[in-house]
Amino acid sequence: MSAGAESTNVSSLGKGDSLHQQVLASFPLCDMTEEDLTQNPQLCKLLATLAQHVDQTGLTVSLKTELEKAEQRLQSQRRLWLRSESLHKGLQEMIQDHCVRKQHATVPPDQNMFYATMEKCLLVAQCVKQLDPSSTTDQDQPFILGLNPHQVMELMPLEKNVKRMKQSLPRELEKHLKKKCLSLLSYYQPECENESEGLKNSKLSHLSSLLDKEKKRAESLKETCRENTVLLQRQAQLYLSELLKCIQLLQSLILDHRLRIQSDLDRKKLDYSESKCELVIQKIKTEMVEIQLDTYTADAIPAHKKIRGKLESELKACQVEKQSTELKLASFEILGKEFEALAEEYSKLRQEIEVKNWAMKELTMYNNK
């Protein structure tokens, strides 16, 4: 296909958003959005050109035609098979109904002969079908139990009984099928149970068209449901994507708000802790005062305060003296080990002087007496 023909086909589909909508409608099974087509314009053009040659399922026109013909042949073969299968099932149901009737009521001999002959014919036909090799099997393959179709055909009922059964079979089969159709009509339209036979027959003649309409309506509803399911999936994807965007935006807002109020929250916590500490300190002081009032009298407390003040002042003086002494010791330690002997000798002399001063003081006091 030439470039001019492709441009003509693309332009015939539309432009802009209309082209995107038509491409999405032409390929409903593809998981694409308008955003994908907008971001990939060459892909959009390719799909628009391809839509001229394929249908919504992706089949070409020629392949679609061949598929429709094959489906028509398949439907024809299926109808033939269903016709024979339904006839066979109907005959089996007739035999079963006859067996049930025999258990509950007396059946005329001619009917017994009719159903016995029909049952035997069905069994023989089924056995012949099983023994008859198909074209796909080996012709030299041995028969089941050593029997061949001709031997089984010898078990057929008498020819006169078969002839009489064939004459009565259409009438009996018609009765059976009509009974089944009436039961189906009663199930489909329960209100017709009490209606006349003629009205039932009239409705029965239109039952197939009604069932066909119901089938088409069910298929239409199924297709609508499938389209709604696809649309719901797309909407769910869009909803999830939008929901994720909203969650991210909410997280960013929460983080910004938290950072903005964190300083105010820390300041309030600090003020609360300071107030609580101040309250605890005041409570401790109050407890100390209560203990003092419970332990001492009102006159003893001022005296204890004075004693405490004097002791604290003496303690401070001792601490100052200790510090000055430690400084002197530190300066003495700088002189080394030679000064240690002099210091020991000095301390001994101080002790002797103190002893002698004490002795002189005692002697003076004794002389005064």
From TrEMBL:
One GO MF term attached to the UniProt entry: microtubule minus-end binding
Superkingdom in the source lineage: Eukaryota
One cellular component (GO) term of this entry: HAUS complex
GO terms, biological process: centrosome cycle; spindle assembly
Transmembrane segments: none
UniProt cross-references to InterPro entries, sorted A to Z: HAUS4, HAUS4_met
Protein name as catalogued: HAUS augmin-like complex subunit 4
Source species: Scomber scombrus (Atlantic mackerel)
